From TrEMBL, chain A:
One of its GO terms (biological process) is transmembrane transport. Residues 1-37 are annotated as: Disordered. InterPro entries: MetI-like, MetI-like_sf, UgpAE/MalFG_permease. Gene3D superfamilies: MetI-like. GO terms for cellular component: plasma membrane. Keywords: Cell membrane, Membrane, Transmembrane, Transmembrane helix, Transport. Residues 1-11 have a biased composition (Polar residues). This is N,N'-diacetylchitobiose transport system permease protein. Belongs to the binding-protein-dependent transport system permease family. It comes from Streptacidiphilus jiangxiensis. CDD domains: TM_PBP2.
UniProtKB/TrEMBL annotation, chain B:
One of its GO terms (molecular function) is maltose binding. Residues 1-22 form the signal peptide. This is N,N'-diacetylchitobiose transport system substrate-binding protein. Keywords: Signal, Transport. The keyword Signal applies. The lineage of its organism: Bacteria, Bacillati, Actinomycetota, Actinomycetes, Kitasatosporales. PROSITE patterns: PROKAR_LIPOPROTEIN. Coiled coil: none annotated. It holds the Pfam family SBP_bac_1. Transmembrane segments: none annotated. Belongs to the bacterial solute-binding protein 1 family. It comes from the Bacteria. It comes from Streptacidiphilus jiangxiensis.
TrEMBL record, chain C:
Gene3D superfamilies: MetI-like. Keywords: Cell membrane, Membrane, Transmembrane, Transmembrane helix, Transport. It is found in: Cell membrane. The keyword Heme does not apply. Residues 70-260 form the ABC transmembrane type-1 domain. It comes from the Bacteria. This is N,N'-diacetylchitobiose transport system permease protein. SUPFAM superfamilies: MetI-like. The keyword Cytoplasm does not apply. Belongs to the binding-protein-dependent transport system permease family. It comes from Streptacidiphilus jiangxiensis.
Length: 331, 424, 275
């Protein structure tokens, strides 16, 4: 899809004009008769609605969840509207529990595995789209869009049905094509096979975004660059390495950033496919927080896990945040 | 300018349409004198599968006659995620007025102060006639926090056509008979599985545990601890595993995923162990094709003890229509309606005098075992044990899948103990 | 020669395999919803529901209050998407085309906002809405859905605005347009595809949202995801009914996607070609 092509168009060699013409704009503003103060305030006025919305609708709940994480908030306190502070107890309980660290470790590896899969396969599909003829490209794009547009709740249900141990097509397919021990295989009986289904579902849903964005980005690379590379004797790999990759670096950075966030936060898919089972072995941090907080109605504990989750996510993405912010300077 | 105007009008229209959709019927509160009920709405939450159609219609008619102008808004809730839903609802200013609550959960909610104390209106509600053992779960710290509504227990529901095809003519008297019958059924043509019994039907296991003289949790030095490591629990699990061996049902699912009744309704399953509402709809299998008998024990003529599942009706402390809510309970639980409910649903009513009205084929099978039934410890913390992921269910799956009994039981006991002693 | 034939064929072959991989689950959902029960639970899958049935759909449509839920879902989703587009457009324009103090800080906040774990913040949102007496209303739902998609919308629109050549805007201003006029007359039309593409994401998010509406609107003003999950628990392993419900639920998204996607892609490639 086209959504994430921002970086590309800003940074690809073809838009070299981006840095140049801002000076005249500013000059004109300054020379504008008497409107100087107004235009200085303009950007802030434009940001006002977004800032207000973020403060009220996100900032307030975020502060509240941090406050709750320092409270004992169970059924009694919630119903009676009482506030009981218990200091760092929710945090120390979590940080000293093996379960939390196991889940955190699992979440990180789960995210890494999925993001790598999605980025590699998604990019390959994007490259393929660029190579295909017009008709085949449309054909494949339609399939990608269908998969991408499937609502998560519906997609999760379909995957449960596909991998049903009695009438699921997946088992039938595997056994019909020779792997007979897979007939009526229960995919949700072990940690690994459950994760396999969840991963397949997530990868299936996520590849279209990467592939279509990648394709949109590829179309912005001028053909002359490839021609020049070819004349210098570069093969397929080398022209990817020296032409495609540098031009698409912003795309890779931005998309990876988004995918890390999305996969790490993936909730419905992980919870709905097998409720975090078997034996809570497929719970990731958001699911763990939900089970402890909402399921067991220990909302303070759930809030503390949520805060820790965000901190881990920030640590995971700090590198990208820095790079992306640095690029802003070059704009 | 024009465009801006259009934009402004558009925005306003959007806002209005949002507001229009949201202007729900918030009941006007506190304005009326007790005698005028016009415009008042009483909201009642029943759990999915509880309120039978005839009983519901009858109660609705009686209610609207007794309180002219008042409206009864009945909402059916799903079990999935009900904990948070009820807790948040009880914390609101306009909660549902009357709520159905599982008997294992009532104490927990009573402890939060979210339920109205019904002690003073108990006899008005007919409380003097309630069977004491049924009323236990509605009492917390000596106060009445709910009215017992019904009790029920699981029986074997079987497909007569398939049993006849297997050459079976009478209900088994002992477990050994039952095993033999199931073996025959599994060998019969047209039977996909003799019994549908998923691995996590822990209420059935609870009955078997009682049958071995065991307890799910015991008090040690004033502290409640899980008791699955006991030899009784192990013996009961062996019975469960043996029965489950006749089933193709998944070992890692409970009876609600999928609803076992839908599996049984397909007509190629010999039997299931379930409640009355889990019997197939007459459109799927005609009622006269369905038979019921209590799960047998090792002794002939003595049914296996059962888990006494049941529900109470409670009033939210924050209800804005408490007098109306008490009035509703009075109507819903009076002898006429409770009797109708007993005869329609085949459950054990709250008043033993009405027991004879429960004479559906299901009730005839269920009542003999009900006398030997028991429930989970009446503790506010108990509901937490049943929260997903329920450690007892995990324990059952582990044992059925061949994991070491002692390890599985220890893990579950630790978790049960932890939850029973967690701060509420 | 043979090698180049192979070279021309394999991309198409891979494309066909990928096509099947991506389409099959969607196809299977739709196909199952039309099948008779006996075809659904058969040991050999029935791939084409030739003698199909509509019974699953009738059941889905006749569930209580279905059309109210549809209307509520559409209202909430479209309102939240429109509001987030308007707010994001203003912010994205400022961030892309203007230099000012605090610009980077704003971007950082938006990027972090993108990470907000809404599912686990539900209880905080619930308490806020409850304490301001706004439960069982579409208004807070719309507002929070708007916020869920706002960060992404801002970040994405920023890219689209950057792609519109500044020269166009400037020449309009030289021709005597004010900055606002230049934006409305020149930039906005070029942004249309970008706006559409971005709205898709918001549309999906808002359409799907479940944990929040579950606790906020217990009495009324409910949306379709609640219906879908209820349908699942009610009908258990009645996969025909469940798949019919899923199809009904997915259909509006698929339709919107196809309408918007074609224009969005067309417009954007046109914009990108200018290079």
């Amino acid at each position: 899809m086209t959504v994430q092509s921002e970086g590309v168009q800003t940074h690809s060699p073809s838009s070299g004009s981006a840095g140049g013409p801002k000076a005249p704009v500013l000059k004109r503003q300054r020379s504008g008769s008497g409107a100087g103060r107004l235009s200085k305030a303009t950007p802030y006025l434009l940001l006002l609605p977004a800032t207000l919305a973020t403060l009220v609708l996100l900032g307030y709940p975020a502060v509240k969840i941090v406050l709750i994480s320092f409270q004992k908030l169970n059924m009694f306190e919630l119903i009676q509207h009482t506030t009981v502070w218990n200091g760092f107890q929710n945090y120390t309980d979590q940080l000293t529990s093996g379960e939390f660290w196991h889940t955190a470790e699992r979440s990180v590896f789960f995210t890494l595995a999925n993001v790598v899969l999605i980025m590699v396969v998604g990019s390959l599909v994007g490259l393929l789209l660029n190579r295909l003829g017009k008709r085949m490209r449309l054909f494949l794009s339609v399939a990608l869009i269908l998969a991408w547009a499937m609502p998560v709740v519906a997609a999760t249900t379909v995957y449960q049905w596909l991998f049903d141990s009695q009438f699921g097509v997946a088992d039938w397919f595997l056994s019909a094509f020779g792997w007979h021990s897979m007939a009526h295989y229960n995919w949700f009986s072990t940690q690994l096979s459950t994760f396999a289904v969840i991963t397949l579902l997530i990868v299936w849903m996520s590849i279209p975004f990467v592939a279509l964005t990648m394709y949109a980005a590829l179309t912005t690379i001028p053909g002359e660059l490839y021609e020049a590379a070819r004349m210098d004797g570069a093969g397929m790999w080398k022209s990817f390495r020296f032409v495609t990759f540098p031009a698409l670096k912003p795309f890779f950075l931005g998309t990876t950033f988004l995918e890390v966030i999305w996969i790490f936060k993936a909730f419905t898919q992980v919870l709905a496919v097998n409720q975090g089972g078997p034996d809570r072995l497929t719970e990731t941090l958001p699911v763990y927080s939900f089970v402890e907080g909402v399921g067991n109605q220990h909302y303070g504990v759930g809030a503390a896990i949520a805060v820790l989750t965000i901190l881990i996510l920030l640590a995971l993405t700090a590198y990208y945040l820095r790079i992306i912010l640095k690029q802003e300077d070059e704009l | 300018m024009n465009r801006r105007l259009i934009a402004a009008v558009g925005t306003a229209a959007v806002l209005v349409s949002v507001a229009a959709c949201s202007s729900s019927s918030t009941s006007s509160t506190g304005s009326s004198s007790p005698s005028s009920y016009a415009g008042k709405t009483l909201t009642v939450w029943f759990m999915s599968g509880s309120n039978t159609p005839k009983w519901t219609a009858q109660v609705q008619a009686d209610f609207e006659k007794a309180y002219p102008g008042a409206k009864l808004n009945i909402q059916v809730q799903q079990w999935n995620g009900i904990g948070q839903k009820v807790t948040t609802a009880l914390s609101e200013n306009t909660p549902p007025d009357v709520l159905e609550m599982g008997n294992t959960q009532t104490a927990g909610y009573a402890a939060t102060g979210g339920l109205m104390d019904l002690t003073s209106v108990k006899s008005e509600l007919g409380g003097d006639k309630w069977a004491p053992n049924l009323n236990n779960s509605a009492v917390f710290n000596g106060k009445q926090y709910a009215a017992p509504w019904y009790f029920t227990n699981r029986v074997v529901i079987y497909n007569k056509k398939l049993w006849t095809a297997a050459g079976l003519t009478s209900a088994p008297q002992t477990l050994t008979d039952f095993y033999a019958d199931l073996t025959k059924l599994n060998a019969t043509k047209g039977v996909s599985q003799a019994l549908y019994m998923p691995g996590e039907e822990w209420y059935t296991y609870f009955g078997m545990l009682l049958g071995q003289g065991g307890k799910i949790a015991v008090q040690q030095n004033g502290k409640w601890v899980g008791n699955l490591e006991s030899p009784e629990a192990k013996a009961a699990m062996a019975v469960y595993a043996k029965l489950q061996g006749f089933s193709k049902a998944p070992k890692d699912k409970d009876e609600a995923t999928p609803q076992q009744s839908t599996v049984f309704s397909k007509g190629d399953v010999g039997a299931e162990i379930g409640l009355s509402w889990e019997a197939p709809a007459p459109t799927a299998i005609p009622a006269d094709q369905i038979g019921y008998f209590p799960l047998p024990s090792d002794t002939a003529g003595k049914p296996m003890p059962v888990f006494l599942g049941g529900s109470n009706l409670a009033i939210a402390q924050n209800s804005q229509n408490k007098d109306l809510a008490v009035g509703f309970l009075k109507i819903a639980l009076d002898d006429k309606n409770e009797g109708e409910f007993a005869s329609e649903a085949g459950i054990v009513p709250n008043n033993p005098a009405l027991n004879s009205l429960a004479n559906t084929p299901f009730a005839q099978a269920a009542l003999p075992a009900a006398g030997q039934g028991d429930t989970t410890p009446n503790l506010p913390q108990w509901a937490a044990v049943e929260n997903t992921p329920n450690p007892i269910k995990q324990f059952m799956t582990d044992v059925l899948e061949g994991k070491d009994y002692a390890t599985a039981a220890k893990t579950a006991d630790d978790e049960i103990t932890k939850r029973l002693n967690a701060q509420q | 020669m043979r090698r180049s034939l192979f070279g021309r064929t394999w991309p198409n072959a891979v494309a066909v395999v990928l096509f099947v991989f991506f389409v099959f689950p969607v196809y299977w959902m739709v196909a199952t919803s039309f099948k008779k029960d006996t075809d659904i639970i058969s040991t050999t899958p029935v791939f084409l529901p030739l003698n199909g049935t509509l019974q699953h759909f009738t059941r889905a449509f006749h569930s209580q209050g279905f059309w109210t839920l549809v209307l509520d879902s559409i209202t909430v989703t479209s309102c939240s998407v429109v509001f987030s587009l308007i707010i994001a457009l203003l912010a994205a324009f400022a961030v892309t085309r203007m230099r000012f103090k605090g610009r980077k800080a704003f971007l950082l906040v938006i990027m972090i906002a993108q990470m907000a774990p809404w599912e686990v913040m539900v209880i905080a949102v619930y308490m806020i809405v409850r304490d301001s007496n706004m439960l069982n209303s579409l208004v807070p739902l719309t507002a929070f859905y708007m916020m869920m998609v706002l960060p992404f919308t801002i970040l994405t629109l920023r890219g689209f605005i950057a792609a519109v050549p500044k020269e166009l805007e400037e020449s309009a201003m030289v021709d005597g347009c004010s900055r606002r006029q230049a934006f409305v007359k020149v930039v906005l039309p070029l942004l249309a595809p970008g706006l559409m593409a971005t709205s898709l994401f918001g549309f999906i998010t808002a359409w799907n949202e479940y944990p929040l509406v579950l606790v906020l609107n217990k009495e009324s003003a409910q949306t379709l995801p609640l219906w879908l999950t209820q349908f699942q628990t009610n009908f258990g392993d009645d996969w025909g009914a469940t798949m019919a419900a899923s199809t009904v639920f997915a259909l509006p998204i698929l339709v919107v996607f196809f309408i918007l996607q074609r224009k969005a892609v067309g417009g954007l490639t046109a914009g990108a070609v200018k290079g």
